[in-house]
Design goal:
The protein is an alpha/beta fold. The protein has one domain: P-loop containing nucleotide triphosphate hydrolases (Rossmann fold, 3-Layer(aba) Sandwich), CATH 3.40.50.300. It is about 35% helix and about 30% strand. The strands form two sheets. Strands 6-7-8-3-9-10 form a six-stranded mixed sheet. The two termini are about 20 Å apart.
Length: about 230
């Protein structure tokens, strides 16, 4: 398999001694404890684990949507730990794509408008042309002017993938991207996801309950007891 980004030794993601807990009913519940993890350029990595094990919490930390209580997180060489909210938002817009299980498309915008929005926010003058190109890449060139309500679940998720990848992020975080889809549609969507990230040389962190899907990644980890355990 070729990796367009070249050097795999350079860590694109580095998580060192990260801890995170929540208060529930007055009790402190530790979710992640002294967690350490690295991912290289263009690697695909699956994270599995039971519900409540902290998989979505970890993705939120990697996305800079939440902050750890202890430890440091470096993404593409940038330490997220002490960044301002504005700095984090700017970093995410340029470097990190996110695909959610629930799609999170803006219902009043067409597929094309949803996909072009991140580029327009970044001031890209070629936003529409780039968005059309990405929609064509996910097989939805003819559905560009449809609203999410006029699209199937699988089509909505493909729009969400196009939107996440339109800025050509170095890192893609995907949270159960096929979780809301039937088996056949889910397989089609994930085939597409893997194809696009490999073409772009994107580092993919995929959270999934699906073991077959996890096996398609270069490396697999299971999150349990606040730690990531490498799977063979």
């Amino acid at each position: 398999m070729s990796h367009p980004s070249g050097n795999l030794d350079k860590s694109v993601i580095s998580v060192v001694n990260v801890g995170k807990s929540y208060s529930r009913s007055g009790q402190k519940l530790s979710v992640l404890a002294n967690l350490n993890f690295e991912a290289g350029a263009a690697q695909t990595i699956a994270i599995t684990g039971p519900s409540g094990s902290g998989k979505s919490t970890l993705l939120g930390l990697l996305a800079g949507l939440d902050e750890p209580e202890t430890g440091t997180i470096r993404m593409d060489g940038v330490d997220l730990t002490n960044m301002s909210q504005a700095g984090l938002a700017s970093f995410r817009a340029k470097t990190v794509g996110i695909v959610f299980q629930q799609f999170h498309l803006l219902q009043t915008l067409t597929a094309l408008e949803n996909v072009s929005l991140p580029l327009e926010i970044a001031g890209n003058k070629a936003a529409e042309a780039e968005a059309i190109s990405r929609l064509e890449a996910v097989g939805l060139g003819t559905r560009a002017n449809h609203l999410p309500s006029q699209l199937s679940g699988g089509e909505c998720q493909r729009v969400a993938i196009a939107r996440a990848l339109v800025v050509r992020p170095k890192i893609l975080l995907a949270d159960e991207p096929s979780g809301n889809l039937d088996a056949k549609t889910g397989e089609h969507v994930t085939d597409l996801l893997f194809d696009l990230v490999r073409k772009d040389g994107t580092t993919l962190i995929l959270v999934t309950h699906n073991e077959e899907l996890a096996k398609r990644c270069d490396h697999r980890y299971q999150l349990r007891d606040g730690q990531l355990h490498r799977m063979l």
